[in-house]
Inverse folding.
């Protein structure tokens, strides 16, 4: 979480362009083949369509016992931030919101990041005044087996990807909810919810929701109301227009048991 020693290096004082974020540690040792079978009972046919490169019981990285995910909201995906990402050795999954990249800059950035990551992303949306809004990206280290969900998600403010560990599939997402477009927010959340429900596997959604944990529960969004909210232990993650926590994670119950 912001302020902890392990994540000082990506605070805004250390890396320009990074606004805020959080870190979550998933214990892959607890994800045995037996618990995987229990979690995914009834989803065998769907799971069989995924990659066959990782065998049940095989560790995702030799010598590692946890999967570390970090969520960061960036003011811009600058060259300095990209360089930091390429030299990162701590985090296996990076969920980025508001990269604000379009056209050539977007594709050039993706190509650079592919040196170290599987890149799942959507370009930002152009606004009527000539600016850009949002844009989500999910980076998964290349030493992990990952792929797009079987269920497509057509949304520029949300990306989902699966990581396969010990024969089980874990679903991760990077979500951005714009503060002044409620219709877009509801559309995004509806699509994410439908995808998560259809996939039926343990999930973790990390994002800049532009809603407090209480506010997102008040709209009766199924993942937030049935899962666990992973809230940073800080007073606020944004100070404008007034301080509040809007950057956090949401984990399904099976995923939460691994954290």
């Amino acid at each position: 979480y912001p302020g902890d020693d392990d994540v000082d290096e990506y605070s805004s004082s250390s890396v320009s362009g990074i606004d805020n974020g959080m870190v979550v540690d998933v214990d892959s040792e607890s994800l045995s083949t037996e618990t995987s079978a229990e979690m995914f009972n009834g989803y065998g046919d769907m799971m069989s369509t995924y990659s066959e490169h990782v065998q049940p019981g095989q560790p995702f990285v030799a010598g590692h016992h946890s999967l570390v995910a970090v969520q960061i909201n960036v003011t811009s995906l600058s060259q300095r931030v990209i360089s930091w990402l390429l030299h990162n050795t701590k985090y296996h999954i990076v969920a980025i919101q508001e990269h604000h990249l379009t056209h050539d800059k977007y594709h050039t950035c993706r190509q650079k990041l592919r040196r170290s990551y599987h890149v799942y992303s959507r370009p930002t949306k152009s606004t009527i005044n000539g600016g850009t809004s949002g844009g989500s990206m999910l980076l998964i280290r290349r030493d992990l087996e990952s792929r797009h969900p079987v269920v497509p998600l057509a949304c520029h403010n949300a990306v989902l990807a699966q990581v396969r560990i010990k024969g089980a599939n874990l679903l991760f997402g990077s979500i951005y909810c714009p503060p002044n477009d409620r219709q877009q927010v509801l559309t995004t959340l509806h699509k994410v919810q439908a995808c998560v429900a259809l996939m039926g596997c343990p999930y973790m959604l990390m994002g800049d929701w532009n809603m407090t944990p209480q506010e997102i529960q008040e709209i009766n969004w199924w993942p937030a109301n049935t899962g666990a909210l992973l809230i940073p232990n800080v007073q606020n993650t944004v100070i404008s227009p007034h301080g509040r926590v809007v950057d956090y994670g949401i984990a399904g119950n099976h995923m939460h048991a691994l954290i």
Observations:
- Residues 182-199 form the longest helix (18 residues).
- Residues 1-18, 31-64 have pLDDT under 50 and may be disordered.
- The two ends are 14 Å apart (CA to CA).
- The longest strand covers residues 18-27.
